[in-house]
Amino acid sequence: MTHIATRAVGTSTARVDGPQKVAGLAPYAYEHPVPDPAYLVPLVSTIARGTVDRIDTAEAEAVPGVITVLTPWNAPRLTDQAEGEYVVLQSPEVLYRGQIIGAVVAESPEAARYACDLLSVEYTATDHDTRFRPDHPDAYTPEKANGGYPAEYERGDTDEAFSAADVVIDEWYSTPEEHNNPLEPHTVVALWDGETLTLYTSTQHPHGVVAALAPALGLDSSTMRVICPYIGGGFGSKGGPHAHDVLGALAARALPGRAVKFAVSRHDMFGYVGYRSPTASHLRLAARRDGRLTGIVHEAFVQSSHVTEFVEQAAVPLRNLYDVADVRTIHRAVALDVPAPFWMRAPGEAPGMFAGEVAMDELAVACGIDPVELRILNEPEADPETGKPWSSRRLVECLREGAERFGWDPSDRSPGTRSDGRRLTGTGVAVATYPHMVQPGSQASIRYRGQGRFQVRIGAADLGTGAWTALTLIAADALGVAPEQIDLDLGDSALPYGTVAGGSSGTSSWGNAIVAAAGTFRTRFGGTPEPGDEASATAGENSDLESYTAASFGAHFVEVQVDRDTGEIRVPRMFGMFSVGRVINPRTARSQFIGGMSFGISMALFEESIRDPRFGHVLNHDLAEYHVPTHADIRDVDAAWLDEDDFHATAVGSRGIGEIGIVGSAAAVVNALWHATGVRIRSLPARLDDLL
Ligand code: MOS
């Protein structure tokens, strides 16, 4: 596509929002100052399926400071109930434990919480089923998986490939239910002014919240505004609104002119705001003795809900990662009495590539080939799914360069033979791939303010990962000025349309819009704009992406230590080598890579939401019992990338980087555990007792 000369892009730049952040001037949603707010605490169901027969509100209403108690019988009605996740307090039906069935609004959070505890509820409970299992009698094949991918895919004849194979790997791999857990929970501040609604909500997509909720609330999108300039971590669950946004809006409707504040508690972060489905993958690889893949069959079983269908696209990545003639991948889902799963940290790729890349390690062992060489041997020339050329696929260089920098030793691959005193040591590798996604429709406007300053406006969202800075650099280059001359506005649906900060697509999509707006601006005003001169544009279609397949790639190398006596696992070292096009801001990009790799360690060794089948809720619903790594668990984690431009992908030569660090990293840890101990982990998280 048409590209621009880059100067600021590619330079390591401190966050432009850093000074506001350290000075406490970068408010998260809940912190936006509003005069005299009321506070909301929700009541959630203690049954997993059935109906609420009665809620006794008298005691709660008598608590000093209580303003109102909402129930399924008195809550304002929604206009549109098409999307199950947004149907809040519209009927007494209970679809999962932890569903919002009421709320108290009070003058203080303490009064609201106390009063909420005084609500007494009568239910009629019916049988429920929250037990995820791949052989569930109600498992079905959906039409589509998340991301719009067809649930089923086939090329060639896999039966033939397997009957002719020298070597077959045929195993099950599983990943547990996991919850996003950004440090800033989901929060909302809702304020009605007549028929106009303003939501301050922690979201990866301000315009998306308007588009989703305006119809439900019976509003024209022009009378709803969503503001979110800063976010304390997104991880996917903030990619769309959830029940709390609807509840906040409904509660505030009864208090015209007065804001209602609602911070989802850490316990409820394991409830109605999305999570990663557990996955079970039946994966079969067929190969020749020399390690050349001849067939792949990946059946991925995932959990959906009766609230809305969500199908984690775990079987998608193996469709085009390796050069294989015969491939069949299929998703199967089962709707249980659970909340709706949603996006979490590379949905699809993260669990799917765990299965795929552990299976590849098993194939390397079965064929007696170095696992780095096995990947190189199966590298496709062109996209095997579509036959299109890659815009730039330098995975082999990631593997070779990464192996070199990490100090990979192909002559030392026998398992359970190295030690460092009482600890067994091992190394593992896995690759990463993530599609380069560009969402259509982002718009940007640019206005010259005089004195060399340009106002750039776009309704983008910064999860905390650095969009403020990356877009400043892109705008500077697009206008041919210095980054210091750019004043950026983002995080507000009143700004020109911004697409979602999700699918690693944000910077690509918004950047293209800014480049388009700058092109219009420069054409119109040349080098002599007057104060007030303004131009706006929508990101153009990138026709290159019709003739090329663009994706980001990477290779993870991990060293582990396992205590022989206790099984205690340590990850002293991890290195990721990436191919992602031009890196816009090396400083924040490195953080995204090593953050994603830390998620991989977390997925491999720590995270697991344990749902109690008797009651239907997540037992370990806090950060004491839902384990995430601490600083002591994350040691020498480093990332590097190839120097490249991909002008087929975006106008500044970049591809997406948000999720590539997450993909494959858990497999690399587990593959290193096999090398250290000879024990093959196929079910996450790996625990010390698995290794003894
Ligand atoms: Mo990301 S999990 O696509 O928000």
Automatic annotation (TrEMBL):
<dbReference type="Pfam" id="PF20256">
    <property type="entry name" value="MoCoBD_2"/>
</dbReference>
<dbReference type="Pfam" id="PF01315">
    <property type="entry name" value="Ald_Xan_dh_C"/>
</dbReference>
<keyword id="KW-0560">Oxidoreductase</keyword>
<dbReference type="InterPro" id="IPR036856">
    <property type="entry name" value="Ald_Oxase/Xan_DH_a/b_sf"/>
</dbReference>
<dbReference type="InterPro" id="IPR037165">
    <property type="entry name" value="AldOxase/xan_DH_Mopterin-bd_sf"/>
</dbReference>
<dbReference type="InterPro" id="IPR008274">
    <property type="entry name" value="AldOxase/xan_DH_MoCoBD1"/>
</dbReference>
<dbReference type="GO" id="GO:0005506">
    <property type="term" value="F:iron ion binding"/>
</dbReference>
<feature type="domain" description="Aldehyde oxidase/xanthine dehydrogenase a/b hammerhead">
    <location>
        <begin position="23"/>
        <end position="127"/>
    </location>
</feature>
<dbReference type="GO" id="GO:0016491">
    <property type="term" value="F:oxidoreductase activity"/>
</dbReference>
<dbReference type="InterPro" id="IPR000674">
    <property type="entry name" value="Ald_Oxase/Xan_DH_a/b"/>
</dbReference>
<keyword id="KW-0500">Molybdenum</keyword>
<dbReference type="Pfam" id="PF02738">
    <property type="entry name" value="MoCoBD_1"/>
</dbReference>
<dbReference type="InterPro" id="IPR046867">
    <property type="entry name" value="AldOxase/xan_DH_MoCoBD2"/>
</dbReference>
<protein>
    <submittedName>
        <fullName>Aldehyde oxidase</fullName>
        <ecNumber>1.3.7.9</ecNumber>
    </submittedName>
</protein>
<dbReference type="InterPro" id="IPR016208">
    <property type="entry name" value="Ald_Oxase/xanthine_DH-like"/>
</dbReference>
